[in-house]
Design brief:
This protein is of the alpha+beta class and 401 residues long. It is 48% helix and 22% strand. Helix 7 crosses helix 13 and helix 8 packs across helix 10. The N and C termini lie far apart (66 Å).
Length: 401
């Protein structure tokens, strides 16, 4: 019969046991000695021991750093690391915190404690992926909220616009009768014409609200986007010249045709480019670029997974060096009736552009910095001309589902 083996006392296994324990840990571990300056303030720290997870997380080998100081290894390290760890080593206070290391280009969750006065041990975990995922989820949540809000506004706008048009029709009808009445004076007829002009302007605003509420273009054809952009720039030529704007066009895309409504696309681009020109009243640079290649930044901006895209993309960039938009305001630039132009703007231009892009299954994204400029990115799925718009729309919805 086998006799049970006695478990040796801990002191016999001390060093070996500690090495095994540390190297089995999935979290990174490091033991340090704090270094003080002439005024007894923490100014550096020395590496005493690290485990294998530390090496994996930092890229530093134990043989290269043991016995050396952090300012020798990473001279540009942020001072808050030394301050936090010095507090632990000198006071015995346990600290838990999250910090970003510029040296390692990673974010860490750290727990530091004092094993003996003047020393500190730290256990840390790389949380870079978690923070990046949280950032993406926050962006998607904001986009979802914005989409739901715009959808609700679209339904409300549709109902209001229909009722509004009914009343305008009556005003236009009676005003037209006055202008054609044989006994009416020229002055009265003139006033009636002013009423008609004003009512027609109101009807135009109302119809733009109806456009905002529609889910798809009214008429669909094969459209060359670069041709539409050239026509848009031709319409803006005078404004570009008057504002002393230097125009740059880079048409780099090989595939530029898609199915859509040319008039609504032209109007959408017109709204964006006019806004860009109005932001550069003292001159600047306007860049219009088309391309089919997607960058890593594009893939992060796109709402759908890179493996779930509808195939090739046509990317439109419209970039200006104007006054830029405040971060709080940029969240609302696609909201109906929101304008940064004061009384000069209706607040329907960019909301109309946003709706047009949605109708064409495109995604529009904007970034801006005050004093630097604004950058619009529009992503169109390149569609097979043999497919109907409805087929593409259903495919797009099924992909998202």
């Amino acid at each position: 019969m086998l006799q049970p083996q006695p478990i040796p006392p801990f002191s016999c296994l001390d060093e070996e046991f500690l090495n095994i324990l540390l190297d089995k840990m999935t979290d990174a571990f490091a033991l340090h000695r704090i270094i003080l300056d002439s005024q007894n303030k923490p100014c550096d720290y020395e590496f005493i021991r690290v485990n294998k997870s530390f090496e994996l997380n930092t890229g530093f080998k134990a043989s290269d750093i043991i016995g050396r100081r952090i300012l020798e290894i990473a001279p540009d390290i942020e001072n808050y690391w030394i301050e936090n760890y010095g507090k632990v080593a000198l006071t015995g206070e346990v600290l838990e915190f999250e910090n970003y290391s510029k040296t390692l280009k990673k974010s860490f969750f750290c727990r530091a404690y004092q094993p003996r006065h003047g020393f500190f041990a730290v256990i840390f975990t790389d949380i870079s992926n978690r923070l990046e995922q949280e950032k993406k989820e926050k962006i998607l949540l904001e986009k979802l909220k914005s989409s739901e809000k715009l959808s609700a506004l679209g339904e409300l706008s549709s109902g209001v616009a229909h009722d509004y048009n009914n009343h305008i029709a009556g005003i236009l009808g009676y005003a037209s009768l006055i202008t054609h009445h044989p006994e009416g004076s020229e002055k009265i007829k003139y006033y009636a014409k002013m009423i008609i002009q004003s009512a027609q302007h109101s009807a135009d605003l109302s119809n733009r609200l109806l456009d905002f509420s529609r889910k798809s273009p009214t008429k669909v054809d094969s459209v060359d986007i670069e041709e539409v952009l050239r026509e848009t720039l031709a319409l803006c030529h005078r404004r570009i010249q008057d504002h002393a704007i230097i125009q740059h066009t880079e048409f780099l895309a090989d595939h530029t045709r898609l199915r859509g409504n040319k008039e609504s696309l032209l109007n959408a681009f017109l709204n964006i480019i006019i806004n860009a020109c109005d932001a550069m009243t003292q001159g600047g640079h306007l860049l219009i670029r088309t391309r089919n290649t997607l960058t890593e930044d594009d893939l992060q901006r796109l709402e759908f997974n890179r493996d779930m895209t509808l195939g090739a993309q046509l990317v439109i960039e419209i970039k200006d060096t104007g006054c830029g938009i405040d971060p709080e305001k940029i969240k609302r630039i696609f909201d109906p009736y929101f304008t940064t132009k004061g009384k000069k703007g209706t607040g329907l231009g960019l909301s109309s552009s946003y709706t047009t892009m949605q109708q064409h299954l495109a995604q529009i994204d904007v970034s801006s910095l005050p004093g630097i400029g604004t950058h619009f990115l529009i992503y169109f799925p390149i569609q097979d001309d043999n497919k109907t718009y409805l087929q593409m729309k259903n495919q797009h919805q099924n992909t998202h589902a």
